[in-house]
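To fix ideas, we close by showing one paired sequence and structure record:
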Amino acid sequence: MGCLITEVHTTIAPISADVSLRHVSPAVSVEAKEHIPLDVSALVSGTRLRDFITIVPRPASLGRVEFGMVCDVPYYDKSIDSYTRLTYVECDGQQYINTGFVVSESDTIEAYYDYVVEAGDKFLFFAGGSNGATWLSCYNNSAYVRFGHTASKTISNGVYNHYIKLKKDSVVMDVTTTALDFTSASTGPLQICGANSSSSGLYSLYKGKVMMIRVVGADGNVKLELRPCKRDKDGKVGMLDIVSGTFYISEGDADFIGGNEMRITEDYKIIDRVSFNKDKAFNTGFYGNNTTYIDVMFQRTSTSAAAYLFGLTQGNRLTGYLAANSSYWRYGNAYPTFSLATLKICKATVTPGKTTIDATSRTFTVNEFTTMDPIPVGGYKSGTNPITKHFIGYIYYFRMRHGDTLLVDWYPCKRLSDGVEGFWDCVSQTFIEPMS
């Protein structure tokens, strides 16, 4: 069946013959009312192409289908009908993607990730060419970075890194900026979670989780943004480029491992992090006890004031307390402490008997306890008093469970109607807004 686009209100992309896979070639501007023949036999009513176009069926007697545009809505503000967002994709050293996208000298690469620490090069991304290469290699507690034809830089601070912002002349790892001695770049297509060559095949395959990879041009426009997704029709897990609509699955020996589903609606927008400035806290709705597990990725933006990442004291405690130069994690009667005078991004895991911050662990003895109120996030509650000692910084995710039962799985989200930042809970599939 053929069809015509009768009106265009924004930049769209031509669609390939296999429309059902949503493979989209590079975007081109299309003048309003230009007629473009497409084969839409595989599509159904309500399906969107690249979040812009809504298919509106007409009676067969008309001999065509018209397209109506979703006007003036940025690509990241709309849900994607053919895919379900995931919290992350995970690699175990067998997954690989070749995006075909070539990074230019003026581009910036950003990524959020959580890698497995072990020996040997593990490329989160790689782009090799005749005159140089661009890469991030995770190796033990160090990172090797390179942009184009220049010597690689080693960044080793003895802890994990969770964020990179790589440009031709500098790299930011979490909050540490290092200059790069750039000369020139002629790179090949951007490869994710490893590298591939005709002589070596697949090599330096990544192990760990990937939350987002983004390429931004010199003008500030996003050119490529890979987000974890699951293709609904066959359950394939991969990375969706929300700029072009291209879905990438693993070309390696195994499929990606998917995180939890984020069935976010079009009234909300996924964001990188939730900001805290002594202005908000969130109610998990669940009590703490001696079977409580908490995972949180956070970044404090000030060490000048005491603040609680989460905290409740009512006879027994379950707290993540950030002091000026230390971090105190209270679990019942236990009191493991850490030296944490840093503004970098950290991942903390609190479990019965052990608390771990990035690569450092402290063990403790667990006693029976149950908190009298649900655990708050972003502040501290003592007895019946209001929440105080609010957190200052960012939270990238927060998970809490009792034993094997997942209670909350929060990822940053913004409500579009009023701009309120909160979390999307992947357990209840609802928006969690700040406490009043």
Observations:
- Residues 274-432 form a domain with the Jelly Rolls fold (CATH 2.60.120.200).
- The first strand starts at residue 2 and ends at 3.
